[in-house]
Specification:
Two copies of one chain form a homodimer. Chain A is mainly alpha-helical and about 220 residues long. Chain A has helices at about 10-25, 40-45, 50-60, 80-100, 105-125, 130-145, 150-170, 175-195, 200-219; strands spanning about 35, 65-70, 70-75. The first copy, chain A, has a three-stranded antiparallel β-sheet with strand order 1-3-2. In chain A, strand 2 and strand 3 form a beta hairpin. In chain A, helix 1 packs across helix 3, helix 2 packs across helix 3 (about 50-60) and helix 5 (about 105-125) packs antiparallel against helix 8 (about 175-195). The interface between A and B is medium-sized, with 23 and 23 residues. The first copy, chain A, binds a DNA duplex (30 and 30 nucleotides) through helix 3.
Chain lengths: ~220, ~220
Amino acid sequence: MSDGSQTEDARARLTRLHDTLRSRICLLDYAPGSRLSEETLAAEFGTSRTPLRRALARLEDEGLIQTQHGVGTIVTDVDLAEMGRTYELRRELAGLAGRLSPVEVTPDIVAKAREFVACGRQLASRPDAREFARVNMDFFHFGASLTQNEALRETSERLYYRTARIWLKSISRLDLSDEVRIFLSELEQTAAAIEGHDLLAAALIRQAHISMCEARLTG
Amino acid sequence: MSDGSQTEDARARLTRLHDTLRSRICLLDYAPGSRLSEETLAAEFGTSRTPLRRALARLEDEGLIQTQHGVGTIVTDVDLAEMGRTYELRRELAGLAGRLSPVEVTPDIVAKAREFVACGRQLASRPDAREFARVNMDFFHFGASLTQNEALRETSERLYYRTARIWLKSISRLDLSDEVRIFLSELEQTAAAIEGHDLLAAALIRQAHISMCEARLTG
DNA sequence: CGCGGCCGTGTTGTGCACAACCGCCAACTC
DNA sequence: GAGTTGGCGGTTGTGCACAACACGGCCGCG
């Protein structure tokens, strides 16, 4: 992943910092409650505190971290109890994706859906929680790309990253291979719907799986 | 509004800056396309550029302004053509507010709803576009307070402020007194629904009015 | 007259030093 | 011994100076 572009735009740099940190938080590289040091992070990314703080500011606005003057920058904790309502909203938005300006299904999209199935099968043969979370994240982005509604995409993404950690945090209480199997099933169902050019069905499948996932996490 | 607290928290100061600037943008005090000067604004608010930039960063993430290195900070333009999809989403979210965790209707809420009707009547007797926009903004916040779903509130607010300017920008092509009359009607219908403790109805009314408003703006 | 390069001016981005602040611990007082 | 207070180390917030950059006007040249 050596960047080909020698000079990086300020905006691109910000995006990179933000996305990287967001990934780390949502993959639990930074555990909830742990403290981030602006200075350390700035040193790691080879910049000064100022641009890094711009990225942290965005993360704070997104609810992933919380800064306190004189104390530090703390990764927020999440649990289903307080995130239940957010989950509800995510579920509804997932359904909306099928009704609001769905894209036209191209062979490229169908191919990608099948790729995800293949990827899911591979995952099933060698379950790994972190890798699962990563694929799930990719699959979410794929799903978001199926609507042309920019606002819906942005909103869904915001809410997704806000709740993404709940699953990974609860995986020890669940059965990983069960989860992988269920996820694979979702991938297969989605691929079938997309092959039939039926994005409404794909959205409903996703909606159903969000609902069932919440139920499993609650129970 | 002289603040009793002598020392203002950093977070409170940020919120104040952000909310003030957001209001000005959405009330068209800062016209779309106009340029904001960090230095001038910092001087006005009696601070340095650094905290002000924090507020601008949030506004940029919300899509209300756009900064370009070496050029300036430009207030984004909005028109219905590109905001149509955002409007769609707002409409759907408004409906959701009635189904997802509505609050329990208290006498206080009923009183507030009636206050809005009174306020709307006063507005009808002396139409003023800017004052209308202001009341509309207050009414939006009132509507948002009727759901306990924090994520839904936050999302709706984000989208509201992103599209709020469209109406004010188009008012010259519309009939102001017509608009005021329609708004008053919405206020009355909403008050009636709330008096009946029927928040689902209130949400559907709002949904309908968003839809009709978009239609008027388009036509 | 047209045009291309250069520079001046104004803007945002960055780095750095310092201020403001919090939590902890030890010393002190009663 | 319990409570209090002062200081210390470490963190984020702020201010300022400078770098990077874009735009437009100006001058020289063809």
